[in-house]
Amino acid sequence: MTTFDKIIQENRSLAEFLQHFRRERHQYPELSNQEFETTRALRNVLRQYDIDVLDLPLKTGLVAEIKGAQTGKTVVLRSDIDALPIEEESGVAFTSKKSGVMHACGHYFHMSAALGAAILLKQHQTELKGTVKILFQAAEETGLGALDVINTGVLDKADVIFGIHNDPTLPVGVLGSKPDALTAGVDRFEIKINAKGAHAARPHDGNDPIIILSHLISMLQSVISRNVPSHENAVISVTQVHSGSTWNVIPDSAYLEGTVRTFNQQVREQIEQRFRSLVQGIQIGFNAEIELLWHAGPPSVMNAPQWIDFVLDVAQENGFTAKLIEASPIGEDFAFYQQKMPGVFIMIGSGGPYALHHPKFRVNDNALYPTANYLYQLAKRYLTEN
Q1: Which domain range does residue 146 map to?
Q2: Which of 80, 169, 210, 386 is the most exposed, having the fewest neighbouring CB atoms within 10 Å of its CB?
Q3: Whole-structure pTM value
Q4: Pair 340, 84: CB distance under 8 Å
Q5: Are residues 229 and 191 in the same domain?
Q6: Under 8 Å between Cβ of 62 and 136
Q7: Tens digit of pLDDT for each residue in 38-48?
Q8: What is the dihedral of CA 378, 376, 152, 26, to 10 degrees?
Q9: Domain end position, chosen among 255, 279, 296
Q10: Whether residue 85 has a cis bond before it, omega within 30° of 0
């Protein structure tokens, strides 16, 4: 019997309940800022266990609170609850019942683990020295859901925050994190080109936006290779290009969209500035109207170095193989919480074989209760030792 099996056996009834809850949420996924039923389901379970839910001006999502018998510090556990606009192809028996909506990022796993941690903390409330706040955050996929929680003021006096995300590249039973940058800062850009259309046989009568667009794409590829130091990691990806509607007409306009990923705030600002300079130069050079829309997303998750050994030690003591991992170019609005307080974001092995946001993505249930237990132990030990 593995350590995980032993942990599950110790509280099989709760483990089975969490599995049932996770699978139910899998069947009824909800998109960002539309998680009404998910919020209601969480609230109902928390009430059944007499766990306080704070009265906050949140449209969806909620914050639970458990106060120990003694006063002390405040630790925050964060999970997220929203799904993605993806048609599910996982083939599991409890597949999504909502066409075109799927929990393809595993947020049902995160919320179920956090719910389990809340139940365990409530069961041991008299042993706690301090307060635990458990976030069931909405709208992580927008990159801005964390700001709605922060703006309520509920975290103003919190001391530290720990968050989790499943990682299908890690096997079940493995957990990882790292100091400093763990995920990338995420920005989205749109470029709209308005020029002058013409008959395809007489291009000299117009100002071809497709030619302008192609120059822009080529120039953008030089932003990182010729402006960002080679020891810095950064990515620019053009992901959408649209122009024209038929074969013999040069269109009036063109559009492109993409993303920038960075791990350094200075580099992030440098790339945006260079973007704007290039767009302005091409606009002048081609005598066209070009609009750049820059949508700043979450910054890079910056894990507090002083807490890395702590989160890995607690994991190792509770059945996980804990290790340092490489940074990932995914985005995470957990980073906004870290601008208010120190914290660590932790990757939990979910076993694959499909990547996050893949229509065949799924999570191995064997990781669920051990993760709930880990979050419980993490909060309890923090309050005991600080």
Answers
A1: 3-183+300-385
A2: 386
A3: 0.92
A4: no
A5: yes
A6: yes
A7: 999 999 999 99
A8: 120
A9: 296
A10: no
